[in-house]
Amino acid sequence: MSGHDAGAAIGQEEVLAGGNMGGAVRVGVSVRRRADAWSPTIQRLLRHLRQHGLDWAPEPLGRDQDGRDSVSYLTGEVPQYPLPEWIWSEQILTDAARHLAQLHAASADFDTADASWQIPAHEPVEVICHNDFAPYNMVFTDGRLTGVIDWDTASPGPRVWDLAYLAYRLVPLTDPANGDGLDSDVDQRARRLRLLCDTYSRHHGHKVGPATVLPVTVRRLHDLAHFTQTCADAGQEDLRSHVHLYRRDAAWISAHTKALNGYRRLRPS
User: Fold this and answer.
1) Please, are residues 71 and 49 in contact by the beta-carbon 8 Å criterion?
2) Would the N or C end of the chain have less CB density within 10 A of its end CB?
């Protein structure tokens, strides 16, 4: 869900753009959407994360009088494509890596018994992945990352599954022809990828490097292309152009893996 800016009055509903499933509305200080089988698990996950100090995750509010899933509204700016220039600052890159490390550390002991997930788990299960940890699901205040939204597709998986997608979106690891990316050369991207990995590893205590992230990013993009193709074939024709985009980006990463993995390791700050 996006469009987190000036507010709706209590009791009034404001339709929010974006969102994994759509249909999200703001009602005062809360965000509501249709409840699904996985909604109780996501509510429990958010409660668990906040109990572990992640005050930048929405507060779970249960269900409203209409049976809709409800979470707290996070005030701030959620960037949308084309992304603003400030989103590419190194401060935001390292902030995002630090927040992802916090999520993974806090979720490692989440009780998955009787859990229901919209997205199937990916092996090996190490943490709970957000599965869409990207700028368009981040809330910023005065240029600093202050919240992360759209948790409905969270599910168990390996740490690198999330880190790879964050790298794809925020390094970025995109073909230069992809207008959603940053106009930068391979050396700059290799340096940003190393910075992302080193920052995540330093804050999580679990080392993950570019050599691990890059092949998983390629796999994620092919999975995403397959999923998008299925959606397009089912009638969501507006998604069809994205299939080629994801496959082209995956091919670009494969062609430049050696260069992207070649930047020297940064010294811990």
Assistant:
1) no
2) C
